[in-house]
Write a structure and sequence with these properties.
about 65% helix, about 140 residues, mainly alpha
Length: about 140
Amino acid sequence: MSSAQVVHAYRHLYRSGLRAVQFSKPARYTLRDRLRLAFRRGTVADFSPHKIANTLEFFGYATRENGLEHKIVKNLLLVWWDQERGGHRKPRAKNLTEEVVEIRTTAYDTFNYNIRMLNESMGMCLPAMTVRDPNC
């Protein structure tokens, strides 16, 4: 894929993702940030036209019906939103121990593994990465 096709793929994914979350405020910003991160860190080979088409179809089903696809997208964005905030409601001012830092950096590994397996089985390209900043 050329760089122009990658830009178009990003725009199509973002637009269909916004429709899937019905432009709700915390979800649309989380989706935007996660897609940006995936396209900045990923390579051109990660985004094949077949995977993009399958992901667009998945978002289309999430838009049309309140079924399994919609619930998957909703829960993905809820976990990503919680992950960005560090998993707690209020900011913590105390210093973190080594154990707490290790737990916070590895807490989402199983979740990301499940997303990678979903991508592999369905031929999609949902972002499956951890933002490793335990000091949030």
